[in-house]
Amino acid sequence: MRTDVLSRTVADLSARVRWVLLAERGAERDGLLQRVAPGVKLAGTVALVVVAVTRATLGGAAAMLALAVALAAASRLPPRAVAGRVGGPTLVAAVVVAPQAALLPGPSLWGTPLTTTGTTYVLVFVTRVAAAATLLTVLVLTTRVSALLAGARRLRVPRTAVVLVGVTYRYLLVFFGELGRMTGARRARTRREPTLRETWRDSGAFLSTFLVRTIERSERVGRAARARGGGGVGGYDRTTALTRADAAFGAVVVTVAATAVVLA
């Protein structure tokens, strides 16, 4: 039985997070949203997320989730990649809100401690989270980070906020990359399987060394960015005319928003 809990947990966490952060292959596919301008895509997705999280009925939330899934399919995104990113937030939301199914007053559900009011609330809440998470996942998987940041600048998002997001993204890659390398080096130097007591005893030294190394590496990344002209956002082609894909996505967004306003 393996007892090196620290190495296994840290390695799995590092690999998982880097898989999420480096998901840019979807942007190379020939799909609907890949042909939409980043600025239009960002603004439209934000509008759809607002509509999704404000749905008060299960039918409305389910319709937004269905729309998000349809956009993912039209963009030719791998279902496993989408589900892998949506499943985590949805599961967390379900765990957090699950007690409300029994705490909210209302008629009993089939003679159980659950109430119909509470169960409906939980289902609506989880569906809204799933819809919003799917929409944001589709946005990220169909747009390169650099294009997404440039699109935000075109929408007049404050430059400071955009630069902070870009720097944070770079640092997260450095952070978890260093974590994976240190875990691999630790495994290579370990000749025998450590006991649980030894694992926890060495955890403090491992984490302190890791934090020092990530700070030093992040400083080198910052100096390299400044040497190349700073950590700003690259240019954005403002002369490109809107395409049919932009018009189609815009029409979807306007239709959904108008319908939500009418049904509100």
Write the layout of secondary structure elements.
Elements: H1 5-21, H2 38-53, H3 58-74, H4 79-97, H5 100-103, H6 116-141, H7 145-154, H8 159-189, H9 196-227, H10 244-263
Helix pairs in contact: 1-8, 2-3, 2-6, 2-7, 2-10, 3-6, 4-6, 7-8, 8-9
> What does the radius of gyration come to?
23 Å
The number of domains = 2
- In terms of DSSP E residues, the strand content is under 5%
Largest sheet: none
* Helical coverage, percent range: over 70%
Uncertain residue ranges: none
Question: What does the overall shape look like?
Answer: flat
Structural class, please?
mainly alpha
The DSSP helix count reads 10
- Overall mean pLDDT: 77
Question: Would you kindly provide a written description of the structure presented here, covering whatever features stand out?
Answer:
This protein is an all-alpha fold and 264 residues long. The chain folds into two domains: 1-24 and 158-233, no CATH class; 27-143 and 238-264, no CATH class. Helices cover 73% and strands 0% of the residues. It contains ten helices and no strands. It has helices spanning 5-21, 38-53, 58-74, 79-97, 100-103, 116-141, 145-154, 159-189, 196-227, 244-263. The radius of gyration is 23 Å and the shape is flat. The model has no long low-confidence stretch (mean pLDDT 77).
